[in-house]
Amino acid sequence: PGRHNAANGLAALGAAIAAGLPLGEAALALGGFAGLKRRMEIVGAAGGVTVIDDFGHNPDKIGATLAALHAFPGRLLLFFQPHGYGPLKVMGDALIERLGADMADDDVLLLCDPVYFGGTVDRSTGSERIVAGVAATEKKAEHIPNRAACGDRLIALARPGDRIVVMGARDDTLSGFAASLVERLNDAGK
């Protein structure tokens, strides 16, 4: 789903035609495209709650994800792990603006601390600033420093019809975190 995927599909068809492939063959090939790992990938569902793993990690990608998911009913429980203090500092204002504009009133955003790979990076701008900015737009946003504690909060908030969306980049363990949420929803009887 999503306009971004439709635009990408049309671009792929255009490239195939420009390369000399017949439109019918190009369309058939496009019809077999299963999508990309971690782009709105449905990990599983339990108790009426669907868990989605998504690579969204900057304002444009997060906006595209929200637009696509809001085309369907259900509240979004958004978990975002920023992929570093530097990127968060650079894109912070745009991220606040995008989330404030694109979140629905009943959506909930949880931000943990940015992934930190060590070094001397300036850690003075963190997730707290983003959460405060989003909350100032009257959207629901919470900073929970620890990812595991964010998982606890997501499970506590989840109700039938919700979609939990795990977003972030540069951390291969995010997919495992998303899968663990499905297991926990099952265990909780949700």
TrEMBL record:
InterPro entries: Mur-like_cat_sf, Mur_ligase_C, Mur_ligase_C_dom_sf, MurCDEF_pg_biosynth. Transmembrane segments: none annotated. Residues 38-170 form the Mur ligase C-terminal domain. One of its GO terms (molecular function) is acid-amino acid ligase activity. Keywords: Ligase. Coiled coil: none annotated. PANTHER family: UDP-N-ACETYLMURAMATE--L-ALANINE LIGASE (PTHR43445:SF3), UDP-N-ACETYLMURAMATE--L-ALANINE LIGASE-RELATED (PTHR43445). This is UDP-N-acetylmuramate--alanine ligase. It comes from Sphingomonas sanxanigenens.
